[in-house]
Amino acid sequence: MKHFGNQLDELFRKKRIVQKDFANKMGVTAVTITKWKSQESIDAAKLEAISKILNIPISYWFDDNFQFNQSIVNGDGSAASVYGNATAGEIADKDKEIEHLRLLLEEKEKFTEHIDITPQQKARILRYLENIKEEIQENKEPQNILKKEFETIIEAEFLNNICTNGTEHSEIAFYEGTHDNNVFISLEKNKIKDISATNLTEFQINDATFVESPLYIHLLDILASAQTLKEKRYSTAIFRPLVNYHVKDMAQKLDAIKYPFLAPSLFDDKMNAIGDITGGKFEFDNKTRNLFWKKEGVKYSPVNVASGIKAFGVMQILMETQAINENKILIWDEPENHLHPEWQIKIAQLFVEIAKAGVPILISSHSPYFIQGVRYFTEKHELNKFVNYYLAKETEDGLSELEDVTKDLNQIFVKLAQPMNEIINIGM
Predict the structure, then answer these.
(1) What residue ranges of the chain are covered by domains with CATH 3.40.50?
(2) What is the pLDDT of residues 172-209, one digit of tens each?
(3) DSSP secondary-structure letter at 117?
(4) Which phi and psi angles does 259 have, rounded to 5°?
(5) How far apart are CA 428 and CA 425, in angstroms?
(6) Which of 138, 186, 218, 323 could form a disulfide with 194 if both were Cys (CB 3.0 to 4.6 A apart)?
(7) How many CA atoms lie less than 13 Å away from 263 in the CB half-sphere?
(8) Cβ neighbours of residue 92 closer than 8 Å, sequence gap 6 or more
């Protein structure tokens, strides 16, 4: 490793970073940063954290021939940080993609040589990296890679119980815009039989966040350290709890509040609106390393915060950590849970305003308050032509099918009102 302090100082100059601001993002004092600049080396954990915040590859600290290109200086997220000056959008052919992955693995291997761990730990890491390289070589065809990734994710999410109940064959199809961009999956006996994708690189949606419950917010430490079946294949940990893929994914995105983002949030006005509704906001204390809800200067542990506030808190953190944007879909199951009718309408308004900012959203709801709220605010913001409503109906064989009722929302309200109508005249 080259002289760490000198490299850090050089990065500060090239990136025009203010030392005090960087110290805040690292959760240390400016004096600590000054000490680091005098050090020849630093421990691996700090080195990874510094690299992540500065948006540079680990290899920068070790490679004498490292070319510090403009992409890295600007931190624009282009692939130039790994190979040449080509942006990710320009790298279309699979051979270059494979080469990119190979270079990343070599970078990790080089990093392993310099960290202070036992020979056994080092051997284990190198074996994992070698396994990954073999996987890449064996699955050069994009379709094979896609199939294997779907298999591992489906197993981690559904424990492979994925075919329609009572059948051995099912199909999944995803279309974006026109049918020019699509993914088609054929399932047989809870296994992927075949998979095909058209114009996969042209898909605009590149991530999804599924919010099952806002109550996960006070279980972040447990959930973020848990593992999915996908991770368990490569993990040596024995006592890590097992969770579904979407739960771990959401926990990691919420846990990212620990790591301040250099880029400004796209939703500052929306987060301020949340503060106006709840009277406070969720923050992360770098000194105590704890998440808390702050109201009028008083800090509260998440476990002591009302469930309704947590719903808005989850929304706040997802916006703050940039887990949602125009290319990342938000899926929320029954956001009205734990909310007073007034707040159901307010969160409906928030969803509509986020959608207006470009975020694609899919919501399941059983609340007439929430649905009417969405209806009202989409019309107010002239977004109603971009919103579709579906009603789940049970079929004769006990399954469900979704019917587009966008032009007749009364079908939804009649169904939701039916239980109340059945009991309203009791005792009269």
Answers:
(1) 207-387
(2) 888 887 667 788 888 888 888 888 888 777 788 889 99
(3) -
(4) -115, 100
(5) 5
(6) 186
(7) 13
(8) 201
Residue 409 has pLDDT above 80, yes or no: yes
Question: Among all chains, which residue has been given the structure tokens 């200086």?
Answer: 73
Measured CA to CA, the distance from residue 53 to residue 22 in angstroms comes to 8
For residue 133, the SS3 value is: helix
- CATH of the domain spanning 207-387: 3.40.50
pTM, entire model: 0.68
Distance CA 281, CA 265 (A): 15
User: Residue 393 phi/psi, 5° resolution?
Assistant: -125, 140
Q: Classify 394 as helix, strand or coil.
A: strand
296-318 pLDDT, tens digit per residue, is 999 999 999 999 999 999 999 99
CA 84 centroid distance within chain: 28
Kindly provide the b/e burial profile for residues 314-346, where b requires at least 16 CB atoms within 10 angstroms of the residue's own CB.
Answer: bbbbbbbbbbbbeebbbebebbbbbbeeebbbb
Tokens describing residue 126: 């190198």
Question: DSSP characters for 143-154?
Answer: HHHHHHHHHHHH
Q: What pLDDT, on the 0 to 100 scale, is given for residue 218? A: 87
> What pLDDT score was predicted for residue 353?
95
pLDDT tens digits for range 202-229? 788 889 999 999 999 988 888 888 888 8
Q: Is 226 helix (H, G, I), strand (E, B) or coil?
A: coil
Nearest to 203 by CA among 220, 227, 229, 179: 179
Query: SS3 for 56?
Result: coil
d(CA 79, CA 96): 11
Tokens representing 48 are 């990874």
Q: What does the DSSP 8-state code read for residue 257? A: G
